[in-house]
Structure formats: structure tokens, C-alpha cells
Amino acid sequence: MGTGTGIGRVRGLGSAKHGAVHWWHQRLTAAANVVLVTWFVVSLLRLPSLDHKAVVLWLSSPFVAVPMVLLTINVFWHLRLGMQVFIEDYVHEEGSKVAALLLLNFYAVAAAALAIFSILKIAFGGVPA
Known about the structure:
It is built from five helices and no strands. The protein is mainly alpha-helical.
């Protein structure tokens, strides 16, 4: 299945423009990760303590929960982009490559959804401080 076939285009193996977009997405998510992880670490360091009550109260704020959701989305998107490149470069058998990419997408979406659900549960008061 060459890069000009329908399945090749679906899998993102079409024209060279797709690779450039992928490369830019990796760089943009990396830059966003620098900003969001820096915010996360500085925010945690500013807490009076890291006990359960303090962290739950901190995460209950919309000014914390929203950036945490954005951080989660960005981290898992960046992870998916990087692992996709790894799989495409190092898994040579087509069936295994497609299966690995499907598993990667399932993992990234499921893990991000679970993390976002957990953040929102705390933010909306579902976990006692």
C-alpha cells in the first residue's frame, strides 16, 4: 500500500504536507507543555502543604482545574504524536503497525478521559477535602 492509496491518506501517509503539520503539532504541544508544566510546578510549590486537603482545595478552583484539563489534553496529545512517530519508524510489519497505532490512540484517549474526569470530579466537589 503506497502513500498514494486511500488507506495511506487515511493513516496520514499522503503528501509531504502531512509530515510538516505533524512536526509543527509536536513543536507546539512541546512549547505548551513547557508553559503548562512550569505553571503546574510553581503552583504546587506555592501551596502551604501537599497534603490531600490542600491539594483538593487547590484543584477545586476553576483557575486551577481549567489549566489542569488543558495540561492533561496537551500531554496526552504530545505523547500520542511522539509515539506515533516511534511506531511508524520502528514497527515494520503493516498489521502490527496498524494494531500498535490503534492501541496508542485508544490508550491516549482513555487515559486523558480518565484524568479529565478525575480533575472535574474534584473541581465540582465530588471529593471531600
